[in-house]
């Protein structure tokens, strides 16, 4: 079986834990996730944040009847990072019928805050 080709694969994102209302994932800071000046790319951090929020939302819906999509995301990049790993912890703040709002904190190996995000996920009926 061929390994799927997704953004998670391209960025090296690994899901560590999925619980109702909480998701944890890691991502390396390397040649795939750095910007041209050698630091973690803000877009890679945002991709990691939306990934954990979307996976968390999908774990809380009926996937036979519904699907979810990122609707809005914002991020504040607090600290730079050149190498190692970052860990994203996503927790649901609001679980409604048509939207969920997730809080995501991205930290480094020493628990330094690298980035914070809030992601709104839309929940829609499958057609």
Automatic annotation (TrEMBL):
<feature type="domain" description="Thioesterase">
    <location>
        <begin position="37"/>
        <end position="113"/>
    </location>
</feature>
<keyword id="KW-0378">Hydrolase</keyword>
<dbReference type="InterPro" id="IPR006683">
    <property type="entry name" value="Thioestr_dom"/>
</dbReference>
<dbReference type="InterPro" id="IPR029069">
    <property type="entry name" value="HotDog_dom_sf"/>
</dbReference>
<dbReference type="Pfam" id="PF03061">
    <property type="entry name" value="4HBT"/>
</dbReference>
<comment type="similarity">
    <text>Belongs to the thioesterase PaaI family.</text>
</comment>
<protein>
    <submittedName>
        <fullName>Uncharacterized protein (TIGR00369 family)</fullName>
    </submittedName>
</protein>
<dbReference type="InterPro" id="IPR003736">
    <property type="entry name" value="PAAI_dom"/>
</dbReference>
């Amino acid at each position: 079986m061929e390994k799927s080709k997704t953004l998670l694969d391209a960025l090296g994102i690994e899901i560590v834990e999925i619980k109702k209302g909480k998701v944890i994932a890691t991502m390396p800071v390397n040649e795939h996730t750095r910007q041209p000046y050698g630091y973690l790319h803000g877009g890679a951090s945002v991709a990691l944040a939306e990934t954990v929020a979307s996976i968390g939302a999908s774990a809380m819906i009926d996937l036979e009847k519904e699907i979810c999509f990122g609707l809005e995301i914002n991020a504040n990049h607090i600290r730079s990072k050149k190498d190692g790993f970052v860990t994203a912890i996503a927790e649901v703040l609001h679980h409604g019928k048509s939207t969920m709002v997730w809080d995501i904190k991205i930290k480094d190996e020493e628990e330094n805050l690298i980035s914070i995000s809030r992601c709104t996920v839309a929940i829609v009926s499958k057609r």
